[in-house]
Structure formats: C-alpha cells, structure tokens
Design the sequence.
C-alpha cells in the first residue's frame, strides 16, 4: 500500500520482481525468462505518478506512464526530445501502461528510455529501506538487464531542462512497426556563447 512497504518487501524477499506498468515484466513472466517467487506490485501506490519542474530539472515519478509524459506540457516545453521519444515506444497499449522508471530499472538494451536517459545524463533516484540513492546513468547501468539496484526500486528520474542553446534528438531502427528496435542513437548538443 505504501512505498515503504514495497521497499521492505523487496528487501525481505531475495527473489522478488517489481511490477509497475508490467510492459517489461509480464512478457518475461509469460515466456518464463524470469520465475520470481514473489512479485511486488507498486502499480496502485498513491502520489507516484507525477511530472514536475523543479528549477533546472524535470522530475518524473515511478508510476508516470509514457502517455502522460508524451502529453505533458512541462515535458514538451522543457525536454521535447523525451516527449518525442516516448511517443514512438511500442503501441498505444504499451504507452498507456508502461513507465519510464520501470523501463530504466529493467535496463533492456533494446529499450528506448535507457538510451535517452544516458544521453541526457539523467539522475536516477532509487529508494530502499535505508533511504534514497541518486545514480548517474554511467554508475546505474552495468550491462544488459543489469543495474546498480540492490534492494531498491527506481522511484524517480530527473532530467535537465533543455535551454534554447541545447539541441537533442533520438532515432531508432525497428525492423517492423512496434517491434523492439535493433539500433538506437541519441545526441545532445549544446552551443557555447
């Protein structure tokens, strides 16, 4: 029922998988790629679906869907490349259920969010029973499906507000519409004075 209870359950059960939107976890469960003994469902936690600007950052909560990010005036105005990126993820069902934080925690090498988070040098906020840890992408992502997460879950992602001197783009190659991309690239360029 609470974030604290979810963190406690993750610590208590070694073989627990976190479920938020389910767009990454459920296919792996169906295909028996993963067979956790426990699933910690955080999909109904209060106050974890938000987008807010705080100074020179945009913070996105762990239950915020791709669809909400795509439609957000805050994201469109201050980090348009993120809105454009999530608009191309999967199909409408995936965008209505999938979450940015869930995809980042999943660290699928063919996923869009880890690439754009790395390009934008996002701050990845993880929470456990001992409190929060803030990671940069280089220290968070360790490889295919491997992250620095221990008994924690990704509770927020903080992205920079992109000013007028910054340009950013994200492209991917998909062999067919809605398929996982086989190649992705992102670039962020900032002009000096």
Sequence:
């Amino acid at each position: 029922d609470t974030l604290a209870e979810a963190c406690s359950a993750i610590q208590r059960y070694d073989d627990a998988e976190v479920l938020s939107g389910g767009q990454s976890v459920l296919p792996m469960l169906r295909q028996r790629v993963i067979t956790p003994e426990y699933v910690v469902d955080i999909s109904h936690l209060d106050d974890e679906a938000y987008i807010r600007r705080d100074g020179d950052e945009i913070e996105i909560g762990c239950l915020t869907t791709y669809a909400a990010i795509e439609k957000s005036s805050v994201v469109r105005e201050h980090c348009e490349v993120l809105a454009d990126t999530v608009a191309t993820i999967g199909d409408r069902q995936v965008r209505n259920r999938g979450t940015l934080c869930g995809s980042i925690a999943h660290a699928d090498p063919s996923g869009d969010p880890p690439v754009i988070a790395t390009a934008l040098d996002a701050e990845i906020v993880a929470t456990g029973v001992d409190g929060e840890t803030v990671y940069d992408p280089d220290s968070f992502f360790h490889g295919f499906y491997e992250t620095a997460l221990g008994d924690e879950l990704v509770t927020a992602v903080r992205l920079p507000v992109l000013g007028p001197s910054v340009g950013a783009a994200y492209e991917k190659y998909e062999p067919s519409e809605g398929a996982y991309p086989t190649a992705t690239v992102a670039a962020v360029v900032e002009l000096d004075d």
